[in-house]
């Protein structure tokens, strides 16, 4: 291969094509037209003396040579990006960029909203696109740039992504003021007798990890409602005699007047981490945003 005929743009196109395995998606990612990417693919095939990508019914599949090229190509281009970005100064007040942030509605309330408030003051040119967290698709979304940053349980973070703990939370029991449970004195027995709301994001299940833990002790609670959103639960509990276990940070920011109590049986807390693709690791703007997140959560924990 004559390396004098190979320019950096072709290498970026090759990386996008091998990762996306689809000319249209690669063109969208590169902000080029589909004919332009097809023409660059033809040049790459000529330069490497190999088809590189072969058409299939569901896109394209790489040849053996292309599969051998992908890992060293990604590593070389990532090193180049990091070296270039390391020398770029980042001015939040003058920055213009968009952050694609994926998280649950609970994390939006306790972490994303404080970040948005801080960005309005410190970096008004940074836009935030809040996306519903889809753990099963996160690896693909991060690789394609569809998601820049995700907030997720560390145990659920896909392999190959950077992860940094962001905050810890615990569950507290909530009920309306004047609920019979408070008058009777809350015990494990009374907890099991009352009706409960659980959160099942999109699946409608009436059993959660709490119910599994109770079942190990041959116990069961009365689950009357399965909600699709954490944010609905405080209002539901306020207007009914249902009880619910919610993350303490969410209860703290809720504007619904509720009475709280400790869970009447041992229940582990949980952590939330920031997760991002290596391509964003050294990006000055992304790095600054992650720093703001860490500072905000540290401040809220100390308050």
TrEMBL record:
<dbReference type="InterPro" id="IPR036388">
    <property type="entry name" value="WH-like_DNA-bd_sf"/>
</dbReference>
<keyword id="KW-0804">Transcription</keyword>
<dbReference type="Pfam" id="PF03466">
    <property type="entry name" value="LysR_substrate"/>
</dbReference>
<keyword id="KW-0805">Transcription regulation</keyword>
<dbReference type="InterPro" id="IPR000847">
    <property type="entry name" value="LysR_HTH_N"/>
</dbReference>
<comment type="similarity">
    <text>Belongs to the LysR transcriptional regulatory family.</text>
</comment>
<dbReference type="Pfam" id="PF00126">
    <property type="entry name" value="HTH_1"/>
</dbReference>
<keyword id="KW-0238">DNA-binding</keyword>
<protein>
    <submittedName>
        <fullName>LysR family transcriptional regulator</fullName>
    </submittedName>
</protein>
<dbReference type="InterPro" id="IPR036390">
    <property type="entry name" value="WH_DNA-bd_sf"/>
</dbReference>
<dbReference type="InterPro" id="IPR005119">
    <property type="entry name" value="LysR_subst-bd"/>
</dbReference>
<dbReference type="InterPro" id="IPR050389">
    <property type="entry name" value="LysR-type_TF"/>
</dbReference>
<feature type="domain" description="HTH lysR-type">
    <location>
        <begin position="6"/>
        <end position="63"/>
    </location>
</feature>
